[in-house]
Amino acid sequence: MSGTATSNSRSVAAANTVLSRGLLVLQVSISVLLLVGAGLFLRTLDNLRSVDIGFDPRNLVFVYADTEGGGLTDERKFQFLQDGMTRLKAIPGVRDATVSNPILLSGGGFGNAMYVQGRDYPGQRYLAERDDVSRVVVAPNYFATMGIPLMSGRGFTEHDHQKAPHVAVINEAAVRKFFPNENAIGRRVGTAIDDRDEIEIVGIVRDVRYESLRESPPPTMFFPHLQREPEDLVFSIRTAGDPTIVMNAARAAIGAVDPNIPIVRIETQLSTLETRFAHEKVLAQASTLFGGIALFVAAIGLFGLMAYNVSRRTREIGIRMAMGAERREVLGMVLRESMLLVAAGVVIGLGLSLAAGRMIASQLFGLEPTDPATMVAAMLVMLAVSVMAGYLPARRAARVDPMVALRYE
After folding, report:
1. Among 368, 375, 373, which residue's Cα sits nearest to residue 352?
2. What predicted TM-score, i.e. pTM, was given to this entire model?
3. Residues 287-310: pLDDT tens digits?
């Protein structure tokens, strides 16, 4: 009867051990999957922050003033903008001030058509692929303030006002789209097919990103603000040092121009830039958190399983040591058993990562979902944590006293 009970007890213990090992392998595979995801999202965030946006985003402050609700005439709006720039430039620590619409990397943009004089447009129809260009309205000193290099031609001046011939500056992407292998300077264009001679292109500037970090700079046409409607133009301030120091002074300077025009908000370019990373930051933080939790649970599971196995095999270990097995051999034996389970989980986890990669490919930037470096890093982290978790039970096994173990039941 006691033999049957002992046999049943051993069968239950063996079944529990198999189940525990299966759960451990599952925990390790899930940990690897989440670690790979965390690595991919963290590297995506780093890649986005490393994108060459074409200008220096540091030391920039934006002041949004609502000129639309005050019932001002266009002439008064232009004067408000001019006076505002003058007062902002006078603030200690301010290097320059300008206006634009939209601001760089705000996520907003305005589409426009651009038709080139001397070209045929069958059916007189607009085609986005052929005719679309982004539109930005800027003050004459905008390119210098932002640090956007002029590649050829000229920028805008105070003489490019409403009564002067209409002019525009385009970026390199617009040159590639509309004037491949041609000289764009001096060409005439229009925003309507019937007005293809309305605007002269006078300059070409370097490409900058003002809509998306993930996409190449779009073909863009810049207009002088004095030749456009003075609506929704935002003050941009370039400072010599920390931009947050001049925020209060900037608010007071604009308020002094016209206290009836409300200031909607003031923010730095870097804070605006960080909002462009909001989605990626959430993904990176969430995957890192869950990956860390899964890694911790897997490590605890491995420690518990190996501690249980050492306790169950104390007599066997004592016999081995009594027969001449060295402590390092026992240590290696126990560690090998744990690492075999971990290795199985790592292989399954990497397989799951490869399969799941296609589902997150659209969320990544600058790397593939099968990125080898990320997968190797996740694997090494898992193995390192597993070695530390399995070492303590293994060391305990190696320190078993053979005489005590032989009496162990």
Report:
1. 375
2. 0.76
3. 889 888 888 888 888 877 777 666
